[in-house]
């Protein structure tokens, strides 16, 4: 089936879609991105992702390329044209195209926008999630503004590759104090030895995960004990359960850290329940 991408105002065949060689995203990683999960052809956690997009752009002083209403229409069109019922939609906004210079273009140029959408096989993903997955740990080596969802992802890409080479799906960054910050493309959680859900607070240098935020609400409604508090790798090893959250991973149970089993090494009841509750919530709230 043909795929289509949105590039600076028009839909083009995915295979032919291209950006200018002097796009500042390409040369300087001067841009931001967002990813929405798609359920039933609709955008999940739409508001949270829009809010974070505007914030990321504002923090980097990149103009908003269009209004939220207009962007919603284009995202939905990307979903429709690519026949996505279950999947992901990716948006990237860069500072635009200008002669290479580290400082911002003067006068400013319009931001450059790319959108792609693709389907995922939810049945296969569910089967995988039911088995759980491994994570490894790597030293935190990212810049101090991980709250901004920038396309500068080299440390994340290297961490993810290290994970893949060790049979893991994710790498958890660990700071100088031995505390887990987050994953290369997800937030990190445990059910600690006392049965409390734990995830790092967003005062730390991490991305404010939209899935994390929705899940905190789901957890509150379910009446489960939770603390936005960091945990060490040691605590993760001794945890009852662990899982990761993100628009791609949703809520994915983790059964080992650096090859050490968590609990009895199988998917725990809390993680699998939260996965089901999160998906139910996201599907119901998708627009
Ligand atoms: N942390 C990082 C570094 C990420 O890249 C992501 C998602 O891509 C997340 C956390 C999870 O964020 P969200 O739940 O908004 O997808």
UniProtKB/TrEMBL annotation:
Molecular function as annotated in GO: L-isoleucine-2-oxoglutarate transaminase activity; L-leucine-2-oxoglutarate transaminase activity; L-valine-2-oxoglutarate transaminase activity
Acetylation in keyword set: no
GO annotations of cellular component type: cytosol
Top class in the EC scheme: transferase
Any GO BP: amino acid biosynthetic process
Domain of life: Bacteria
Keyword Transport found: no
Name of the protein described by the UniProt record: Probable branched-chain-amino-acid aminotransferase
Source species of the chain: Caulobacter endophyticus
